[in-house]
């Protein structure tokens, strides 16, 4: 783990608080987390994984750009829960994500891990599926460990998929992966889920470009339209 942390620091910085500034709209970070339970306001953050989606201009298309997943731009760390390990861990949850008590104890100190996360994301916008869960866990862990939380905006890909497909029902990630023919090699494993979510973003991109210019701010506005789908809530 120390070697991994040194690699993140050498590539993305020393883990200091990120500087304020404009968003890096040429690089979106697709993220996924694993936790010690289903309550993001209470349960510990156990793992963060992410992969970068980079954008390049489309030749001959004014303002157009094409996303691609960059596997060399990825992040994955386990965190050691603060405090003593639970005397009665959520065994069912451990079976889902596979991060047992031994792996949790071998994880990084939360402050070190979250500093590395801040350095990695920089000013890139963030993308997740049901991202409120990921966002709440990461921001709460950051405030607990560092006294701060990144203010990078999040896009919920579930909202975006619902709008683009005019789907009023809440669909799972498995539903959308199956719909688009995407195979996830290890569901409920953070790095595999992040990669599958990034693949879903690319599948949604052609339909998205028919509705907006593809800038993160306009994609957020488009995704917000999920609230107006009939029977959504």
TrEMBL record:
It comes from Methylibium petroleiphilum (strain ATCC BAA-1232 / LMG 22953 / PM1). It comes from the Bacteria. One of its GO terms (molecular function) is nucleic acid binding. GO terms for biological process: DNA metabolic process. Pfam families: RNase_T. SMART domains: EXOIII. This is Exonuclease. Keywords: Exonuclease, Hydrolase, Nuclease. The lineage of its organism: Bacteria, Pseudomonadati, Pseudomonadota, Betaproteobacteria, Burkholderiales. Residues 27-210 form the Exonuclease domain.
């Amino acid at each position: 783990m120390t070697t991994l942390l040194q690699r993140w620091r050498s590539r993305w910085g020393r883990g200091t608080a990120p500087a304020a500034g404009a968003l890096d709209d040429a690089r979106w970070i697709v993220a996924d987390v694993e936790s010690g339970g289903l309550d993001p306001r209470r349960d510990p953050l156990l793992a963060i994984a992410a992969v970068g989606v980079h954008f390049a201009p489309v030749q001959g298309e004014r303002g157009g750009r094409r996303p691609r997943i960059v596997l060399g731009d990825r992040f994955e760390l386990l965190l050691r829960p603060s405090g003593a390990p639970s005397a009665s861990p959520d065994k069912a949850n451990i079976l889902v994500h596979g991060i047992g008590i031994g792996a949790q104890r071998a994880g990084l100190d939360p402050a070190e891990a979250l500093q590395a996360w801040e350095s990695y994301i920089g000013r890139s916008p963030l993308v997740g599926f049901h991202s409120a869960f990921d966002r709440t866990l990461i921001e709460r862990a950051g405030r607990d460990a560092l006294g701060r939380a990144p203010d990078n905006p999040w896009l919920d890909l579930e909202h975006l998929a619902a709008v683009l497909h005019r789907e009023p029902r809440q669909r799972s990630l498995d539903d959308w992966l199956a719909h688009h023919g995407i195979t996830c090699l290890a569901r409920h494993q953070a790095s595999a889920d992040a990669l599958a979510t990034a693949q879903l973003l690319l599948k949604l991109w052609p339909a998205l470009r028919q509705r907006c210019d593809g800038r993160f701010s306009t994609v957020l506005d488009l995704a917000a339209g999920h609230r107006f789908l009939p029977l959504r809530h």
